[in-house]
Amino acid sequence: MRVRQLTAAAAVLLLAAGLGGCSEGPAPGRGPAAAPVSADPTAATGDVGPADRTAVRDGGTVRWAVDGVPATLNVYQGGATADSALLAHALYPSLFRPDAHGRLLPDPDYLAGAESTPPGQLPQVVTYRLNPHAVWSDGTPLSAADLTAQRAALSGLDPAYRGGKAAGYDAIDAITPGADPHEVKVTFRRPYAEWRSLFGPLYPAAETATAEAFERPLAGGGHKSAGPFTVSRYDAEGGRVTVVRNPLWWGDRPKADRIDFVAGPPERRLDALDQDRLDVAPLTAAVDRAVPAAPSAGTSPAGSPSPGTPAPSRPAAAPPAAVPEAAALALRRAESLPGITVHRAAAASLTQLTVNAARGPLTDPVVRRALARAVDRRRIAEAALGPLGLPGAPLGSHLLAEDQEGYRDNSAAAGPEDAAQLLDAAGWQRPAGRSTRAKDGKELALTLLVPAGSATARRTADALVADLAVSGIAVRPATAAAETFVKDHLAVGDYDLALFSWPVGPSTAGEQRAAYAKPRPDADGALDPGGNYGRSGTEEIDRLFDRASAELDPAARLELLQEADVRIWQLGHSVPLYQRPELVAVRTGLAGAGAWGFGWPRFQDVGWTR
Questions:
Q1: For the purposes of burial, counting CB atoms within 10 Å of the CB of 538, is it exposed (0-12), middle (13-18) or buried (19 or more)?
Q2: What are the φ and ψ backbone dihedral angles of 343, each rounded to 5 degrees?
């Protein structure tokens, strides 16, 4: 499954650089008339062209846009990108894959069955039945050896594996062969509820059995794979990776002969689609970060460079209104391209307003809760998503998306709906004739850190400023570039409020704990926030996450997560706003491609209709 870690790059995917079929980053034939937007633009769990295999012809090439040729196909290496994950889904096994609601289900191509011992029975033992037909590209069957090597690489127990730790692998005590070569038993040293998230992707033992092998770039030829496709060309300099049908593939025969993953910057995607050079193109960043065009003879009416015209550099100080206007023009251009359908979905990522609890008036939890109640989340979501053709669905949970099982709006836990009551109680009064509250002669004025150049962020920031002003909180937006957003601001606490997104998925307790874990003193006694950029946390919240991770009863686990979410609301850690948007352009006649939401492409179904 996707690796969902908030690295610097992932954080500054932020509001806009959608995974769009796992590209643009944790990605997916010219027709006679302008194509409509997708048939159901409000679909929140994915919007993918129908993949009735009987209607898809054998053969053909699919040209798929990626941001760059990844240096590695090992998603657990530090240099992995969202494009690494996209290619890995075509080349490597994942024992489970998410459905439209983010629930992990066995992938029958790799897994004939899997069963865990019932809750309360210790130790927990998971028995996997591997598909007996599943083999690596050298003909070697998938086996316990592959799981054993991956566990050693990712458990964090061997420091020689740099950056290889992944949630859950440290809970494994032993991996042993079962009753036959296709059965594997995994014994846990402590119960681990999210065991289905392990071994996805799964790499061959030869690539993970030693630290040297693990660190070696998995690029180019000479590496075993076990997916419907295998690499035939890996051209980093030329910006292209070509995959072709795996001759040893045992599952449904891939419809396309080959897929060309074509690297190029998002701002060039509309031109490439218009010139019939791409068939699948994530557009979230291309639209959201469209460059405001300076009037010139070389600029098209849609606000994008004309074919063959070099892309202009972004103006040093574009007027605030220019960024959303450029995004609107880019979206209209995308929708008007002949033979192109724009698919829309809510991505598996939650956009939130994070509150720095270690700074100024925000050290008071009452002020933080008041801020949360002052935000009209529905209005914010409509302002951010409405212009993209997505429903303005607000979020009421820090941990679950609206379409995930167990989702519940816990925002009432923040306190009274009237933010004024909370601010009055905290001593922040509104002087007569003044719009901004004050206390001890100091105004309640905050900065809002926003990713530079993002139209969605700009719309969100404008709506937040207006909302908070009603309650007497003055907010001044300040932009930061992607390369400095995390290291120069979030990591060091140089902000009051900040807009960015957290990945969300089936492994909620394991993946999101770091965002809410109580900060601890480092060796020098200074507060180390780790991945908790809000810098507020409690022992109780940590215990609830730990209990949820170990709770094998699904209903009981969800209740623990709900309780953790309630405590996070009461702490005033952050304000969930909406799911990040995902836009993907697909050429007419191509089935099985679109905006996947929680899922990822089933590459063997992607192909051209008859």
A1: middle
A2: -90, 145
Distance in angstroms (rounded) separating the CA atoms of residues 14 and 22: 14
CA distance 436 to 119: 54
To 10 degrees, the CA torsion angle through 524, 525, 530, 534?
-140
Q: Give dist(CA 555, CA 340) in Å, integer.
A: 43
Average pLDDT of 426-447? 96
Percent of the chain with pLDDT over 90: 76
Phi/psi of residue 408, nearest 5 degrees: -150, 140
Distance set, CA 316 to CA 278, 426, 462 (Å): 31, 41, 20
Average of per-residue pLDDT across 103-119:
97
Give the span between the Cα atoms of 467 and 134, in whole angstroms. 55
Per-residue CA distances from 383 to 61, 380, 400, 453 (Å)? 39, 5, 21, 17
The pLDDT value recorded for residue 385 is: 97
Residue 511: enclosing H or E segment and its boundaries? helix 508-516
CB contact set of 310 (below 8 Å; sequence gap of 6+) = none
C-alpha distance from residue 69 to each of 31, 72, 94, 277, 600 (Å): 29, 9, 22, 17, 19
Beta strand pairing status for 438-439 and 442-443? Answer: antiparallel
- Tell me the one-letter amino acid at 368: R
Burial (CB count within 10 angstroms: exposed 0-12, middle 13-18, buried 19+), residue 448: buried
* Alpha helices per DSSP H over 265-418: 269-274, 284-288, 322-336, 365-374, 377-385
Contact predicate 401/346, CB 8 Å: yes
Closest C-alpha among 172, 144, 145, 146 to residue 157? 172
First to last CA, the chain: 31
pTM (2 decimals)? 0.88
Mean pLDDT of 429-453: 96
| Residue 432 identity (one-letter amino acid) | A
Residue type, 197: S
Predicted pLDDT at 504: 86
Q: Which amino acid is at 40?
A: D
Quick count: other Cβ atoms within 10 Å of Cβ 361? 23
User: Residue type at 408?
Assistant: R
**Residues near 295 by beta carbon (within 8 Å), at least 6 away in sequence:** none
Looking at every residue in the chain, the average pLDDT score rounds to 88
Q: How confident is the model at residue 310 (pLDDT cuts 50, 70, 90)?
A: very low
pLDDT of residue 319: 64
**How big is the CA angle at 422 (ends 516 and 377), to the nearest 5 degrees?**
60
pLDDT of residue 7 exceeding 50: no
